[in-house]
Amino acid sequence: MAPVPASGDATTDAVVTAAVSALSTGRTGDLDHVFVGGTARMAGAFEAVDTVREVLTILEQQLVVVTLLRDVLDRGLNVAIGAETGMARLADCALVVAPYDVEGEPAGTIGVLGPTRMNYPQALAAVAVVSKRLGRRLSEG
């Protein structure tokens, strides 16, 4: 797969590059796959060590993450804050998601999980841009 052209935003470029790399690993099968990155940055966003431990434990459980993303999207949400995530252990967190399509078909979801005090406009814009660029890039081949 050819490299993705730079957008000019270092954070967006890093996420798109990581997503394309994760999706290009050649893994096949019926399992849903989750790519998790930025855990060190996330740990710094929370003040309580117990919260960080809970969140990182959840992120290590692929089925839980996939179920969480599907549940949020199935409810027609792009943002789930605290209890809206449907998981008590994520009460101090917020999830911002955007699905992406490949050749017009749903292919996956980009999401940002962070503290409830995150910058929502920035997170919404980031997942929207990354999902559009990733979908377009994967559709192009």
Question: Key terms for this structure?
Answer:
single chain; 141 residues; alpha+beta; Beta-Lactamase; 3-stranded antiparallel β-sheet; 5 helices; 3 strands; 17% strand
Structure, briefly:
With 141 residues, this protein is of the alpha+beta class. It contains five helices and three strands, in the order H-H-H-H-E-E-E-H.
- Would you tell me which CATH topology applies? Beta-Lactamase
Order of helices and strands: HHHHEEEH
Mean pLDDT: 78
CATH hierarchy, class: Alpha Beta
Task: Let me know the CATH homologous superfamily.
Answer: GAF domain
What would the principal axes of the Cα set say about the shape? globular
**Helix share bin:** 40-55%
Amount of beta strand: 15-25%
Largest sheet: 3 strands, antiparallel
Task: Figure out the total of helices.
Answer: 5
Q: How many whole angstroms does the radius of gyration measure?
A: 15 Å
* SS content category: alpha+beta
Q: Provide the domain count.
A: 1
Would you identify the regions where 5 or more consecutive residues have pLDDT less than 50? 26-31
Query: How many beta strands in the DSSP annotation?
Result: 3
- Strand order in space, largest sheet: 1-2-3
Explain the overall architecture:
This protein has 141 residues and is α+β, with helices and mostly antiparallel strands. The chain is built from five helices and three strands. The chain has helices at residues 10-23, 39-45, 49-59, 62-74, 120-140; strands spanning 79-81, 93-102, 105-115. It has a three-stranded antiparallel β-sheet, sandwiched between helices. The longest helix is centred in the C-terminal third of the chain and has 21 residues, at 120-140. Residues 26-31 have low confidence and may be disordered.
